[in-house]
């Protein structure tokens, strides 16, 4: 079958990463976690003493780090200037700063170009997950999915992942990050007009995966 391009967007805690990875693995497609790229550039800014409250400083440094994503869904990788940053990009510090960095237009245009070139290069097809994939990065994707879930379900899933994290604090942090991501001027988190919305609140991960696999197969 021809290479298929699947865009999966939605706020955090909707099961985007787990779903995207499993769907890509099951269908033999590549997988790109675009949130990891924004986290990686944020990690670099923090490590290089760039003031996160200074968008001009962030913009001036946006082209500096070399960010490389490995797209095998069974073991996706991310490096910055050759350093494996898979673990440090998940810290609370990076998580709390990533929305400010990713709101800077120079950061978005730079990372968007990277994403488009990875998608173009994926001969087997690719599942790309993020916030603006269907609207901005890959508007011609063969299939666009927008995952949603209630704030309670999203906070419960995230605190489960963070093992023992306080559900209320997680819920507040998550709502704050989604508001920042949805409210920014440049390519905010949004559902594309032609995206299929899947509310995952009452679904198991397995059910969401099956639903998306079925939708992809209809497109192939
Ligand atoms: O998906 P994840 O929670 O790892 O994304 C981290 C952050 O990266 C988001 O909160 C958002 O600020 C940013 N992001 C983005 N556009 C994307 C993917 C992620 O702005 N396509």
What's the layout of helices and strands?
Blueprint: E1 4-9, H1 16-27, E2 30-33, H2 34-47, H3 55-61, E3 67-70, E4 77-80, E5 83-84, H4 92-102, H5 105-121, E6 125-130, H6 133-137, E7 143-148, H7 151-161, H8 167-183, E8 196-199, H9 205-219
Parallel strand pairs: 1-6, 1-7, 2-6, 7-8
Antiparallel strand pairs: 3-4, 4-5
Helix pairs in contact: 1-9, 2-4, 4-8, 7-8
This protein binds cytidine-5'-monophosphate.
Give structural attributes.
binds cytidine-5'-monophosphate; single chain; alpha/beta; kinase activity; Rossmann fold; Cytidylate_kin; 50% helix; 220 residues; five-stranded parallel sheet; three-stranded antiparallel sheet; ATP-binding; Cytidylate_kinase_dom
Description:
50% of the residues lie in helices and 16% in strands. The chain has one domain: Rossmann fold. The protein has nine helices and eight strands. By secondary structure, the chain is an alpha/beta fold. The model has no long low-confidence stretch (mean pLDDT 96). The strands form two sheets. Strands 2-6-1-7-8 form a five-stranded parallel β-sheet, with helices on both faces. Strands 3-4-5 form a three-stranded antiparallel β-sheet, with helices on one face. Bound molecules: cytidine-5'-monophosphate. Cytidine-5'-monophosphate (C5P) binds at residues 12, 34-35, 38-39, 98-99, 102, 130-133, 177, 181. Belongs to the cytidylate kinase family. Type 1 subfamily.
């Amino acid at each position: 079958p021809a290479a298929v391009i699947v865009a999966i967007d939605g706020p955090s805690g909707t099961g985007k990463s787990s779903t995207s990875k499993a769907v890509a693995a099951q269908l033999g497609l590549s997988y790109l976690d675009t949130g990891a790229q924004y986290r990686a550039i944020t990690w670099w800014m923090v490590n290089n003493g760039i003031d996160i409250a200074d968008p001009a400083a962030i913009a001036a440094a946006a082209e500096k780090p070399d960010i490389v994503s490995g797209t095998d869904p069974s073991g996706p990788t991310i490096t910055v200037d050759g350093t494996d940053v898979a673990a440090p990009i998940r810290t609370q510090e990076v998580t709390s700063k990533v929305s400010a960095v990713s709101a800077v237009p120079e950061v978005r245009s730079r990372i968007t170009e990277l994403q488009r070139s990875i998608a173009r290069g994926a001969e087997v097809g690719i599942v790309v997950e993020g916030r603006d994939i269907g609207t901005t990065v890959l508007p011609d994707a063969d299939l666009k999915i927008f995952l949603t879930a209630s704030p309670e379900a999203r906070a419960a899933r995230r605190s489960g992942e963070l093992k023992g994290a306080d559900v209320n604090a997680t819920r507040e942090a998550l709502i704050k990050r989604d508001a920042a991501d949805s409210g920014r001027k440049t390519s905010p988190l949004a559902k594309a007009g032609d995206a299929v919305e899947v509310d995952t609140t009452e679904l198991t991960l397995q059910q969401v995966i099956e639903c998306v696999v079925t939708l992809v197969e209809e497109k192939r």
